[in-house]
Amino acid sequence: MFYPYQITSEAAYEKAYAQSIEDPENFWNDIAQHFHWKKKWNKVLEWNFTEPSIKWFLGAQLNITENCLDRHIAERGHEPAIIWEPNDPEEHHRILTYKELLFKVEQFCHVLQNNGVKKGDRVCLYMGMVPELAIAVLACARIGAIHSVIFGGFSAQSIADRLVDAQAEFIITCDGAFRGNKEIALKSIIDDALIQCRFVKKVIVLTRTRTPVSMIKGRDVWWEDEIKKVETQGNPPFPAVTMEAEDPLFILYTSGSTGKPKGVVHTCAGYMVWTTYTFVNVFQYNPGDIHFCTADIGWITGHSYILYGPLSAGATTLMFEGIPIWPDAGRFWQIVEKYRANILYTAPTAIRSLMSFGNGPLQDKDLHSLKTLGTVGEPINEEAWHWYNEHVGQKKCPIVDTWWQTETGGILISNLAGVTPAKPSYATKPLPGVQPVLVNEKGESIEGNNVSGNLCIRFPWPGMLRTTYGDHERCRTNYFAAYPNLYFTGDGCLRDENGNYRITGRVDDVLNVSGHRIGTAEVENAINMHAGVVESAVVGYPHDIKGQGIYAFVIYTSSHGDENLSRQDIAQTVSRVIGALAKPDKIQFVKGLPKTRSGKIMRRILRKIAEGETQNLGDTTTLLDPAVVEDIVAGRL
Ligand code: WT7
Known about the structure:
GMP Synthetase, Chain A, domain 3, seven-stranded mixed sheet, 24% strand, binds 5'-O-[(S)-butoxy(hydroxy)phosphoryl]adenosine
């Protein structure tokens, strides 16, 4: 045992859990001792869920990068912090030790400062999975700027919306990104976004793909040139800026049930403690282990379990630029073998996709280094769970099914690898500090076991969101208004006879496509922008690989008659407006949509039709025109 707060037996878990409920303040007070503070707190917690107002470690001062970098230098300065595997297996990998990473982060802090970035400024990062993305994220944190990473799959319009919302004046990007055999022209997409964002002052561009770019005078600078300037100044150190515990650390946009993504805000101290504590305990990380999380840093999983959690724990984190199936479906296994990775953390959609290639790609790979497997992002079906267990873990590796959300900052419900029991398709038990509640439609808490309901949390944990950027009321209505004094997750859930939790999926109008959250309203808005579209309704349907697919019912005024071309046009529009990740899998042209007399679309019926149900569509008598349903059923794709 290397971490004083590491839980190493089931009894210790029970004990820690009980303590965390009976006396949360003392519980977290003890854990927080094991971090580096510039000044300690004078109060552990102050909260109410009505405003909401959530404050942890009040009065404390820190910088998360001192915890992720500086404090490890003496003991493990020469140990690898980041191992980076490029997209192309023929290209050289890179290893950054803690010492090198700190050096590069400090160097880039100077670049940020030289370009006018100050504490509190919002900096948008739109980059591929290169080590410089990690460096840039940490440099923002060190200087006290609020980073907002945007996943490389989002469109110019989505970027512009986020830049406007965050009023981000600074952007860090790359000329392009490699993903499999594709090249994504990131800088050119940024240029398109910036036509609408004249308030952006500086764009720092890293060379990665040598994709041609146009640099705007006075606005755009090259990363490499800016680094050279710091080198000529002799690479002075860059002391970490003092942050208050509740200063914002980052914004990460995520979809909700309205058309507009929300900027989820996480703050410095609580997020740090939560990601570190959960990283060590869920994965049972031990110093020297190599942790391979396959997520993209554009999502919360990458923030918490590629960067902040592992680095704060002094771990070695493996960062992969490419995709699971290029050059072939053995890529993950080749990477595990090459670096002797000990922990593999990935999404059920990736497992299902790799499973569809059969066991061939695994056969010649040495996976004996693996100790722990993890999944995240969506419910895992039993078939995928067993395949992961038998063929990847060779029945020797505990699997942690980790349930959490962008808003929760880190894992809330999961077994602890090899310490508490797993149950296929169950996230199992809440981590210490987490108090789940299941509620019924009326908001009454459902006690006892063998029950299901909407999943809420009744007490704050350090890693939870504090607000939605620029609109606190939205945070309240979205998460704290559905049920008084509870945080509402948006997920449906059941609790088995032993108190294990199984997440059954979203109960709001949010889809989970390949582990990515997409609001149906966002997709509808995008579809409706197409000139030929009168109205649309989007629902999810079960998809073998993606978990959920996107099914769009569209009222269309055909101009050129070719339905397939029209479908492609609409999909292209969605791609332009949101990004390729939101493209509908199926588009059905319909004459009308099932609406109530008050004009509300009855999605319940559409969902059933999309799922393949034709008979039991439930009560259709309240519909304005029940005949549309028959038409839709008849034209089902
Ligand atoms: C939604 C959150 C958590 C980081 C990646 C996704 C679903 C997440 C699980 C799981 C079943 C899960 C939920 C949740 N989800 N993990 N282990 N089992 N469902 O973060 O984009 O914020 O999405 O993903 O529906 O609400 P996100």
